[in-house]
Structure formats: C-alpha cells, structure tokens
C-alpha cells in the first residue's frame, strides 16, 4: 500500500506516543454488538483499530458488546470472529462486556454510595418527558432525592429479581439542566428478565450501552477508544463516569462512519432483509456484509485496500459504491486466472472442420503475468459462442459475428459466418461457419485483419453451469431516504439478480473450488459459489470488467 499522510486519529496516536502518554502504550479494541453479521462499515472500523495497533506496536482486543440480551446470539459471535480473521486480523484478547457485569454492578453501587445514582420508579414515558427539550431544561424526577440507603436497598432487590420488567431503573444523578441531553440523569440499568447468550439467567438487570461501554474500555485499559461520530455527543457522559469512578482514563475519538451509495448499512435493516427473505441470507452476494462480499468474490486485500483508499475523517459523507468495486477489479485483475465461459450460449457449427476430430489449443492463464503459465483447451467442429456476439442483421458498428463476416476465435482460428439455421418459430438455433486452418493461433499468413475476437467453448467438452449476475441491491442512490409512510425496502432493485442456468464453461472449470476466482474473458470476474458441485458448477459474478455505471 502506498504511503499516505497520517489521518487525524493516527496523528493523535503518534502525538500521544511522542509525549509519553500511557507510557508509550497503544491499546485499541473493536467492539461489535453480536446482533448481526459484520458489514463493510465494520471493516472500516476493524482496519482502523487493528491497523493502528499493528502500525504503532500496540494491541487490539476484540470485545463483544453483549449488553442487550434480547437481540444477541452465539451465531453472530462466531460469524464475527470468522470475518475479522478472514479480513486478516488477529486480536490480542477476546472479551465480552457481559464478563464485566459484576464489576459494573459494584461500580453502580459505588456511585449510589456517593449520591451520584438513584433508583427511579417512574415509567419510561415519564422519564422521557422529564428530559425536556434542547431549549428547555428537564424536570427532576420525583425519585431523584431518594436516600442512599433506600437506593441501595432497591437496587439490590432489583438484582435479586424481586421486580418485574419496567418497575425501576437506575439513573445517574448528573444535571437535569445540562445543555447536553445525555447528561440529564441518563439511565444506567433496566430490569429485563431475559436469558443472555453467555450469562444465562444469572442477571435480570442489564446495563445500558453508555454505562457499559466506557467502563469496559477502562477495565481493558484502552488508550484510544475509537468510535463513529454519533457518539461524539455521548463523550461528556463517557468522561463523567470515568472521572467519578476514578478509574483508568480511556479516551474516546470519533470518526465518520462509512456509507455507500445504493446500499443500506444498518444491521437492523440488513436483518429485516434476511428475515423477510428478500435476500438469500446474511451471506447473499448482494449484501454489504463481509460474508456476502466474500461469497461474491471479494478478497480480504481488496477490502483492506478499499478502507485505505477512503481514509478516515471527521466529515460525514457517502462513498460511491464504484470505489469499492474498483478496489476488487484492481485486485482480481492481478490475481485471477483467465478462463473462457459462455453465459448465454448459441451453437456454431464449423462445416469444413473434419468430422469426428478435435484438437487441444494452448491458452495463457494471465496475459500480463507469465508466471501464471498456460493451459490447453479443446477445440472441435461445434463450439458455443455468446448469443449477443451474433447479429443476423447488424447495425454498421457491430464488428462481431454476422452473415458473411469473419472474426477471430480466441486462441483458435478465424471463422466466417456462412448460414443461419432457424427453427419453425424463426428462432436461430445454429450458426454455420467455415474456418481458415491457416489462421491457427489467431493470425492470418496473408495479413488480413478481423475486428473482433470472441470467446467460445467446445460443445463436446463444455461443462454445464449456473451463473449468477448481480446488480445493485437497491435502485436508488440513497435507499435510506424514504418518503413519509414509505420504507427502505420499497427501493429494492427487482433486477438485482439475473440467473443464467445454461452457461457453458471450458472443462478445466469443473474442478473449481468454493471461493476460487477467475476472470471469464470479456464477461467479468467470477467466484465459485458454496453451492457449486463438480457435476454442476455455480459461479457468482463478483464484478464486471469495467465500471458500467460510470457513463
Ligand atoms: P449498525 O448501525 O450497523 O447496527 P453499530 O454501530 O450498531 O452498527 P456495532 O456492532 O456496535 O454496530 O459496531 C461495532 C463497531 O463498528 C463500532 O465501533 C462502530 O462504531 C463501528 N461501525 C459500525 N458501523 C460502521 C460504519 N458504517 N462505518 C464505520 N464504522 C462502523
Ligand atoms: Mg453499536
Ligand atoms: Mg446498531
């Protein structure tokens, strides 16, 4: 990766190292909530947190922010670990916010003892109403002046399970007139009689994100707690808790989250697509999830390069999805072997090719890189070409095959169209051509030129395959932007998946393994799907050869 000036967060880290803050220690963390699969936005946060640790000789933890038992599952924990590793990162320590529940509880009691937290027995609606608005101060809760003894007694009984959901909450006692709404006596705990994926039924009291997050950072002695801009307004609260508990002073820094055109990125929305079966699952190749991108054919390098390219700033914005696609194109152009595949076949019969014979032709695996070597491909009297490469009645600028026209078959011969065969419905069933045996390898000894080179597959040796072409999942640039009463799902692109069930592949491709990527000449980059078998290979198009949207 090319050298680039440091982004503002790396500047801060470099400064802190220079000034000797934290004794030259750099400790970051990536803190996903295990309530869904990771997406490309998370990849940005992963590259940032793990990248900084790596570049500055620091450490990075993986911490599951599992404080909300109703939405979290072990399946998500496992997928998150797989995806972080696949992206090329390894965490130093693995933690769970739920491991800190006991410590958090003790700290909550400590705040009660200091008169800095109280049990509120009002309803959530009442508490919300007390908060006031940005322009007017809030009103103190009638429970705000409860005694330390009463608060402690109630809080212990909350933990013991004596009260139903919603009966009480614990609130920090800060300032109901604070300009920052987050400081108007925020809730720290709620009662939830719910099974947790790790702590089981041990707790019926669960901490709110703001109460758990900073304290978890502090327990792990995180030096730079990096999060997205929405949390900037939470920073005073983050610092208030740390200050009043007098614990390790982790510091929070905010950067702009990644948004992509033609895509939604919130886990809630992605889950909705999965649950409504509008996509095949979390790893549907149209999804922005790491699992989906991997299945689509993205490489870890292409995602890391993408994150490097977009950089890290404080300014919210939306990145054009073509930037992501280009990073894959660049990477696969370098690493993918070339093959021939006809996605929508039509048969060509070479009438002057000796019947009952065939031959093996040599083809290069990568035109720009000899180290990829060569392979042989069978050629015979009958071949498939792409239906769109033939026109019976072509416009002037159509240089591919048409009656009387001569074109080159890649790695093979010149062929010339002599006759079009049709069925009773008038549909073309075969194209009859002649070939020039003198043009083997693709050049005519008499120096005559052709204007097109087409890909093809031998009929006798072709492997039948299923090929899936993808377009953007949404048909508008910003699917989050919906009119009153509308829904982001209204913007789904009905043509985001095109199934080609009669594709013909060169025989070598029958041995392709799940996740193997190729360039199908002239058609794009393709990745062997997990549903693929030797009998019936399945390929997903990862990306086209050129950016067809940039017109
Ligand atoms: P979502 O809004 O998709 O549900 P989240 O922020 O709730 O995302 P978390 O699991 O809490 O999801 O995210 C873990 C980390 O990844 C957080 O530090 C968060 O700031 C970061 N992150 C999440 N989405 C993005 C994004 N689009 N761009 C950059 N970082 C992100
Ligand atoms: Mg979150
Ligand atoms: Mg979320």
TrEMBL record:
Give me the residues that bind L-glutamine, please.
Answer: 65, 209
Q: Which reaction does it catalyse?
A: tRNA(Gln) + L-glutamine + ATP = L-glutaminyl-tRNA(Gln) + AMP + diphosphate
EC class, as a word, reads ligase
Q: Where is the tRNA synthetases class I (E and Q) anti-codon binding domain?
A: 453-529
Locus of motif 'HIGH' region: 32-42
Query: Residue ranges of the Glutamyl/glutaminyl-tRNA synthetase class Ib catalytic domain?
Result: 26-319
Q: What is its main location?
A: cytoplasm
**Is Cytoplasm tagged as a keyword?**
yes
Q: Where do the annotations place ATP binding?
A: 33-35, 39-45, 228, 257-258, 265-267
**Entry keyword set:** Aminoacyl-tRNA synthetase, ATP-binding, Cytoplasm, Ligase, Nucleotide-binding, Protein biosynthesis
Task: Provide one Gene Ontology cellular component.
Answer: cytosol
Glutamyl/glutaminyl-tRNA synthetase class Ib anti-codon binding domain span: 336-436
Which HAMAP family does the UniProt entry name for this protein? Answer: Gln_tRNA_synth
Protein known as: Glutamine--tRNA ligase
Species of origin reads Rubinisphaera italica
């Amino acid at each position: 990766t090319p050298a680039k000036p440091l982004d503002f967060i790396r500047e801060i880290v470099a400064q802190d190292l220079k000034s000797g803050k934290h004794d030259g220690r750099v400790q970051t963390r990536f803190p996903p909530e295990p309530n869904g699969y990771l997406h490309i936005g998370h990849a940005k946060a992963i590259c940032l947190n793990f990248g900084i640790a790596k570049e500055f000789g620091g450490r990075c933890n993986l911490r599951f922010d599992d404080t909300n038992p109703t939405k979290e599952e072990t399946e998500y924990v496992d997928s998150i670990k797989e995806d972080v590793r696949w992206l090329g990162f390894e965490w130093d320590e693995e933690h769970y916010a739920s491991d800190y529940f006991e410590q958090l509880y003790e700290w909550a009691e400590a705040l009660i003892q200091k008169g800095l937290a109280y049990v509120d027995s009002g309803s959530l609606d009442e508490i919300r109403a007390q908060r006031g608005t940005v322009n007017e101060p809030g009103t103190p809760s009638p429970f705000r002046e409860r005694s330390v003894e009463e608060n402690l007694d109630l809080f212990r009984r909350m933990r013991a399970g004596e009260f139903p959901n919603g009966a009480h909450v614990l609130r920090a006692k800060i300032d109901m007139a604070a300009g920052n709404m987050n400081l108007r006596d925020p809730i720290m705990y709620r009662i939830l009689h719910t099974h947790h994926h790790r702590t089981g039924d041990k707790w019926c009291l669960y901490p709110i994100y703001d109460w758990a997050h900073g304290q978890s950072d502090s327990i792990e002695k995180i030096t730079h707690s990096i999060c997205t801009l929405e949390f900037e307004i939470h920073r005073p609260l983050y610092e208030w808790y740390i200050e009043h508990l007098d614990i390790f002073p982790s510091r929070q820094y905010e950067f702009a989250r990644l948004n992509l055109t033609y895509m939604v990125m919130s886990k809630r929305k992605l889950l909705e697509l999965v649950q409504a079966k509008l996509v095949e699952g979390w790893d549907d190749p149209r999804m922005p999830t790491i699992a989906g991108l991997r299945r689509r054919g993205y490489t870890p390098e292409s995602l890391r390069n993408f994150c490097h390219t977009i950089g890290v700033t404080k300014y919210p914005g939306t990145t054009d999805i073509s930037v992501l696609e280009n990073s894959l194109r660049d990477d696969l152009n370098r690493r993918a072997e070339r093959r021939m595949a006809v996605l929508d076949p039509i048969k060509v019969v070479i009438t002057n090719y000796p019947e009952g014979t065939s031959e093996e032709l040599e083809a290069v695996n990568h035109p720009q890189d000899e180290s990829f070597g060569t392979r042989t491909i069978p050629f015979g009297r009958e071949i498939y070409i792409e239906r769109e490469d033939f026109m019976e009645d072509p416009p002037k600028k159509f240089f591919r095959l048409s009656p009387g026209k001569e074109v080159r078959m890649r790695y093979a011969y010149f062929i010339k169209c002599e006759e079009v065969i049709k069925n009773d419905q008038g549909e073309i069933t075969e194209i009859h051509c002649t070939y020039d045996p003198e043009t083997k390898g693709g050049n005519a000894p008499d120096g005559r030129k052709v204007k097109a080179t087409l890909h093809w597959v031998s009929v006798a040796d072709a492997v039948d395959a299923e090929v899936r072409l993808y377009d953007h999942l949404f048909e508008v640039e910003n699917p989050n932007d919906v009119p009153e009463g509308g829904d982001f799902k209204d913007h789904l692109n009905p043509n985001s998946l095109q199934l080609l069930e009669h594709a013909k592949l060169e025989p070598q491709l029958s041995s392709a393994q799940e996740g193997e990527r190729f360039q199908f000449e002239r058609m794009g980059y393709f990745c062997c799907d997990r549903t693929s078998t030797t009998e019936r290979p399945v390929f997903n198009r990862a990306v086209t050869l050129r950016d067809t949207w940039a017109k």
